[in-house]
Amino acid sequence: MHPVKKGFTQKAGYPINNMAKSGPIIIVEDDHDDQEIIQEIIRETGVKNEIIFFDRSEAAFRYLKTTPKQPFIILSDVNLPRQNGVEFKRQIDEDPLLRAKSIPFIFFSTSVEKSAVDTAYRELTVQGFFKKENSYAALKDVIHVILQYWKICRHPNSAE
Prior knowledge:
This protein has helices at residues 32-44, 57-66, 85-93, 96-101, 114-123, 136-152, and strands at 8-11, 14-17, 25-28, 51-54, 73-76, 105-109, 128-131. By secondary structure, the chain is α/β, with parallel strands linked by helices. Helix 1 crosses helix 6 (136-152).
């Protein structure tokens, strides 16, 4: 059990900073069962941010271009219908407005092929590439680590 520090809450054994003042978590995932599981896990870790799901990257891109909100993070599957996750991230990287928003972008996918990982890191500006684990506990651990890391990481969207 982790000690709970001032300003943190603890749920299901995880201390996590309250992120209520941060922007929405954007998740681009076409599998509705995975959406439900991810949402449940995020809530179990105590995160209070709004969670916005898109099952198509085109809809996520339109949202990112038009929202006045500053998203906290984008978690995207690689294998998506029509426009895949790599093409989606490339579109974000090529857009000056979205590049300026500096939204952390994480690939989170069941399929982790070396070629996709190589492309993500060599051709795009991704901040991580994680495998969507098969066990609930392992998936929960990965999501917790990703969110906690970006909560404490300094980047252009950090308050201060």
